[in-house]
Amino acid sequence: MPFIGQDWRGPGYIWNKSGTSTWDICDRNIGVHLESVPRSQVKKIIEAFLRQMQEKKCQTSYTNLTSAPVSKCSVKENMTWLQVSSTGSKECRGYTTFGELIRRLDLAGAAALPHRFPYILKIAELVVRHKMSTLSGMAQSHFFLLIEALLEQVLERGCEIRRMRSILNRLMFLLQRQSRRTSFSSKLSWFQCIETVRIWQSKLKRIEVTRRFDNRATLTDLPLELQYDIIAFLNEAEDVNAASKVCRTLHMICEQPSIWKNLCYKNFTQEQVDWAIAFMIRKIKRNQKVEEGSSSLDQDYFNINSASKWMEVHALLHKAYVSRELIYVDPLLHCQRCSVLFWKDTGHPCIESDNSNVIIDQLSPRKFISFFDD
What we know:
5% strand; single chain; mainly alpha
């Protein structure tokens, strides 16, 4: 790098020693004309030099690194994995935000994949329900892009319309409530968010599911046993209630006590179901004034009666406990060795030929959200 200044060692002159302590300029350089360098160009040269030195320093520090680099590093910005840290430390500078996670792991792009769409939709649903008020302005802007990507997939495929509608309704409710309390941003930004959610809701209302006009078999054309097995695979009570409104046959199947009993045992543990049944038996005894030994009110009472009893048990369980999470095909993975979040197809530097000591966990949506608990 050339020296810029008035020092005698600067370039442009040839100095000759004339005595013991004196220096003279060579005669052939007397007519040399030095042009002044603009201040802006000097600033650019210095910034480029400092940037180059910083990149070399970062690259040398990451050469012998066994775990993943920190998430705030500009050198590894194009990586599809992310090191999670809630606080800063000597090993990990800075901390990871939810907006950075959405951007680096490309959750909006993952929503376009059919096998990752249910997983991303569940994450968005949990964020709107529990974490929306704690997000920063930048995180909310990234989250709105994620919601828009999910909405495009719903409009294109015509699936998960009910869950998407509930997400948008909840999001609108939170924005309106924040307007009456403490606003999370400026009024202009708040109005833009309200208008964006209203546009999304209007698009979802205008969605049209194409009807079939072919002569191929439909769900109602199948035998009753197969229709029963298909309804038994449903995991949510809203889906069962929606299926019961299709036709009389499906309504009869959805009114079976075994369907709602299956929902209870599928979404909750044995201990939770036993507690709900005992609670309902005590409630029935109080209402009907049944003596302790005059009638056998046990679990068989729910098996032989209508589905309304098991509906009440399911509603009680849903109110008292948190239902089990589904097993997703391609969830996010978490390395306990270096605390890195990554997708299975991308991987991260900790996975090598000898990965016997590496512990990889599959993150459910609730575990994923728990990384950002206070």
